[in-house]
């Protein structure tokens, strides 16, 4: 056989150089997460990472069920009292476990995370190679990002791992656009970032505004016109990416603005903007910021974390000890313009850390946390550190005095004789960090002095990998997790509730809500999304973006504290309130303590399921109640809380008298209403509501049909939050839809017997789809005519 051609040999070598980082990243992931691949654990955490159990996992399971039963995510009565799910549509791409059957989701989470680790690492490897770094430095940089504290925290707060993937893709795309003129990849990367949510487009813009001009300045020097001129086509490419992703981001923006956080109802803006610009944080904050780069768990793991705020919200800046040891070397011998950029980057890390006002500014004064700011910091830190390491590999001399000084300073921080610091710092990790830091410095110095740079390089790569495995295992494995065995046992989300809901549905096909007072989530934190797992209609919800009208209604009837940002996310709904639960359609109650329900006349015992007792509410009210009398919201709010709840059974609450007059709904005074309530017992009120209620003939999540007979013009109140996406028809003709009862869905109906239909479509979805299609056509047309742009001085 003949010898392979030089071209074939070069091609084979190139493939090997691409495949090897992938193999290394896979091995790193398998070793870090070996307890999850080969052991008994799954990536569901019972400790402070319980969002994996109480938020993400119920969403994944519900999306899995929804796309099989209903189609693409839209309105769901399984979320709170009802909410649009479309804002979670990005999960279908970023969290592919959502497509799996529900029983496969939990064991598949580790494979999903491994895929993200691999993708992020390979993208970053390509970025470093594009920047001209030596192959070993690019490999080590990719390992440091894949094994960073931020990526590991994404093993339970899954969206953090998504951010690493998306922003690394954006970094690579921006570099390709600046260096090679490949503008289309920037468009695609911006669209990808949009899957994280509409707010991330603001962070994406901030990233590009900082990165692109800095790279153009490094390339062309201080030529403002050239920088501005070359930035314009790249800005256009990024803007096209916003349009391309509009089908996801525009409805997501609607959901964000239609939530308490996005609408400003519980915003932190006024609090954070009033903080002094050069005001300081607490002593503990600075200890945390100084120590967490040494190890993600230097101050404790999960519930045992002893740093600032909590395990998640504190700075997540660990990305390999070599990075902090070698970083100062990047300034040595660099061109002046590069040193300016590096100095600005350092200032961008230090100033917002020392003076929190600047970190609030980064977040648009929407929150007091680090998160994506930490990610941007480690992307820059690893990149610049690997530039310095690459120079070492390529024969450039390190400043050994600076290296020694840096090492001593870092060790000095670890051993500062501050009692509070030493009492919080984990001794074993402190010792290991000391060994790793000292070893890196010795290897770098020995490699340079003994002229054995490649030997030192590969020893450093091996040592860095060992460090990541040792430290990351603490972050992901030294935790309280759900076991694979528990997934098969009748505990947690597999408990007696499964049988109870199955039996109820087998004998009752009407719409009803179930009150479940014992939460099934196995973590220490209350699971308020049980309905999404077990498939029943409840009223509680844990979400960062609960529907604004849902929380407005709960606040108006004293089921939620006013102006409580925490309660708008951790909403218990109507749990434990007999009148409100009955009004909202509660037909069954599954409770651990039967005592209060046995003594309540409206409940009858049905069956016992383990430690839970099932009761039927004999005063159950159906979905869709009609009212021919109204009360203005202003007068309603003046009533005591218990009276407000009872009023909902007698009249509809409208925004004002003008609204009632406009739709021809008669009005009642508070005194008249109180008199009616005195002479009419509760059973009679319930019976009246049932007689005029909507008679359901068809019910789906986004389509409700029924009939109703009315003596007077009335408002049909459906016990679900008002949303602009709902449309109503009376006998095939459009009927007015309005907000009733300070946040519920109302439909104005005429006297007589009518067929009523309600349909839901995600607001702005059609417009978003048109924008995406138009952007896709523009992208194809412009790319066909001009696949690259030339950047000139």
Q: Can you describe what's shown?
A:
The protein is α+β, with helices and mostly antiparallel strands. The protein folds into 4 domains: 181 residues, no CATH class; 212 residues, no CATH class; 122 residues, no CATH class; 140 residues, no CATH class. Helices cover 54% and strands 13% of the residues. The protein has 35 helices and 22 strands. The strands form 7 sheets. A 5-stranded antiparallel beta sheet has the order 15-16-22-18-19, with no helix packed on it. The chain has a 4-stranded mixed beta sheet with strand order 5-8-10-9. Strand 2 and strand 3 form a beta hairpin. It is elongated. The model has no long low-confidence stretch (mean pLDDT 93).
Provide a brief overview of the structure.
It is built from 35 helices and 22 strands.
